[in-house]
Amino acid sequence: MTLSEQQSSIDRIRQDARERFEALGFPTSRDEDWKFTNLAPIAKLKFEPAARDFERASELLRDFPANANRVVFLNGSYAPRLSSPGIVGTIRQTPAPILELHLARHADYRRDAFAAWNTAAFEDGAFLFIGARRVVEGPVHLIHISVPGAGPGSAPSVAHPRNLIIAGSRSQVSIIESHLGVQTYLTNAVTEIMVGEDAVVDFTKLQNESVSAFHIAAMHVSLGRGSAFTSRVLSFGGALARTQITSVLEEGSCCTLNGLYVTRDRQHADNRTTIDHAKPHATSHELYKGILDGQSSAVFNGKIIVRKDAQKTDAKQTNKNLVLSEGATINTKPQLEIFADDVRCTHGATVGQLDQEAIFYLQSRGIGREDARALLTYAFAEEMLDSIRDEPFRVYTGQLLSGRLAREATA
Amino acid sequence: MLEIKNLHARVGDREILKGIDLSIGTGEVHAIMGPNGSGKSTLAQVLAGRDLYVVTEGQVLYNGADLLALSPEDRAREGLFLAFQYPVEIPGVSNLYFLKSALNMIRKHRGLPDVDAMDFLALVKDRMQWMDMDQSLLNRSVNAGFSGGEKKRNEIFQMAVLEPQLAILDETDSGLDIDALKIVAKGVNALRSPERSMVLVTHYQRLLNYIEPDYVHVLSEGRIVKSGNKDLALTLEETGYAGFESAA
Fold first, then answer.
1. Which pTM value belongs to this model?
2. Are B169 and B200 spatial neighbours (Cβ–Cβ below 8 Å)?
3. Chain A residue with the nearest C-alpha to that of B90
4. What are the CA-CA distances from residue B185 to residues A18, B5, B26, B124, B173 (Å)?
5. Three-state DSSP class for A216?
6. CATH classification code of B2-247
7. Strand blocks (E) in chain B
8. Which residue ranges make up each domain of chain B?
């Protein structure tokens, strides 16, 4: 029995989500969570069904370093001919009784309109289950591609990717979720990740949407006792892109949330994290770096909650921004809500420009001014890519980053 | 090789160089000495092209061409090298990558192809031995976390790899203990050649015990107030700068 065949509790949840979405409507700037991110351009869009343009999709994947364990979704639905799924399944292929245990149990669709919309409207997404004690070699790729129509000027489309990842106790896996596309569209993604006891999950998200696309994503991560979860969110594309991560930490778990956002022209990147230290002895590290150019803008909002019995919590949050132009703006806001007394929490945010002394130093050795700027900018960002374990993907993202910075240098 | 004529420069509203005249021939080593605030480092930075300083008057000819019209990178590509008084830390850029980029930029300017990777490594390892530097420094970020002495040695190491025509050493001796000073001097002496000129900017005579200059100039309040041979440095060591300031 699959999801589409069976009347299950999931159908009731989706019906509930539909009602919530209708009741909530699109958030506005009066909503504190959306104060600096204007959704008017999305609200104006009239979505139409997209064509299934496999050729354009496979063009986008030409240099993409993913061979085994890869599922590809085109405009929200599974594209078997672009996939080599290996150990990954899809939501539609997965029997409802399995899905029911976790799907939509974690992401908050009651208060989050976009999560509600996704829950009500999603067509498909990746389903990954890693059995207890299993160690997966190499990364698992979840790839979401949007190609709205055949020609330029075609109507925008919308996709609601929905991913569910369950890592059994003491399992280990590395996952890469990528978003690519052309033209104008909206991606409204939700990813739920359950990290079992003592499991180790390494997660990379590459947001390299079309520069005229909109990307709204919610991730929810539950960390079991003694588990370790590391994420790095690389945000390069999109006219407006937001990734919101909520993680809930069980006793003794370790949560690392890293991110890099690179914006130019009129791009807007919004990164929002909530780390909920629900239980004692958990550790969290967070480092988000931003590079802003042109008239672009970015938001970083990092909330850390330390619950009353979460003693011996160790939490560190850092946000560093490199602003390359006068027209760019960054809003950075740490939010610490601490209800326990024996904890260590630190946070810090910096906003700076390129070091003129360093530029001159490089020039004095024969390196041109623009090359010097690009080199220093790349050096600022590089540490965020260094920890990507899969070498082909690390090289690939390094090239994407260089390309982005080179274009900034000539602009 | 270098001809400085009536050079005036200021930072903000403050005039620091008030008419420098100096001529440096090919293969010569000149020492420029002077008290703090006399304008020594400003002269070095102006020659390298730091835009913090504004040249208000005068001229600098380098191999007969207008040096001040060139960008800092083009000066470097034309063979000018400044060893910084305060070398800059560049986290995230490895020494090796930095030096290779610099060398290739200079080679490209001269119409040469990129340096062969193996040749480059051999060159770098050889020059590191001169400077008694550990090879692990190659993969570390430029100057990041280096001690004061390591930074100064790294400057001379870069110079040894880039092989400039005209090297300006800005207070390379300051902050060095005697052992480090000897290593730095050894590197500089190894680079002395009939085709290469050097300017040693220093506050103290100490460095000149190890690197013997052909000429010594005393800079005070933005002007060269006395020039002579290496004996002038010894006189300075005895009398101090006080007498020269009144002469300015």
1. 0.88
2. yes
3. A358
4. 78, 30, 20, 18, 9
5. strand
6. 3.40.50.300
7. 2-11, 14-24, 29-33, 54-62, 65-66, 80-83, 90-94, 141-142, 166-170, 197-202, 215-220, 223-228
8. 2-247
Instruction: Sketch the domain layout of chain A as residue ranges.
Output: 9-250, 355-411
What pLDDT score does A287 carry? Answer: 98
Q: CA B24 to CA B35: how far, in whole Å?
A: 22
Q: Least CB-CB distance to B72: which of A363, A376, A383?
A: A363
- As a whole number of angstroms, the distance between CA A14 and CA A9 comes to 9
B interface test, pick of A322, A356, A360 with most B CB neighbours within 10 Å: A360
SS3 B169: strand
Enumerate the β-bridge partners of residue B75.
none
pLDDT digits (tens, 9 = 90+) for A29-47: 888 899 999 998 998 889 9
**pLDDT of A411:** 39
pLDDT in tens, A326-360: 999 999 999 999 999 999 999 999 999 999 999 99
Angle at CA of residue B108, ends B102 and B109, nearest 5°: 95
Q: Residue B207 corresponds to which tokens in the numbers above?
A: 């460095």
With both helix axes pointing from N to C terminus, report the angle between B178-191 and B117-130 in degrees, rounded to the nearest 10: 130
- The HSE-up count of residue A368 (CA atoms within 13 Å, CB side) is 9
CB B228 within 8 A of CB B210: no
Contact at 8 Å (CB) between A346 and A315? Answer: yes
> Chain A interface, mutation test: which of B50, B80, B93, most A Cβ atoms within 10 Å?
B93
What are the distances in angstroms from CA A364 to CA B42, B89, B114?
15, 14, 19
> For residue A363, which residues of chain B lie inside 8 Å, CB to CB?
49, 71-73, 76
A contact set with B (CB within 8 A):
355, 357-358, 360-369, 371-372, 375-376, 378-380, 382-383
Q: How many CB atoms lie within 10 A of CB A402?
A: 15
Closest residue, chain B, to A379 (C-alpha): B92
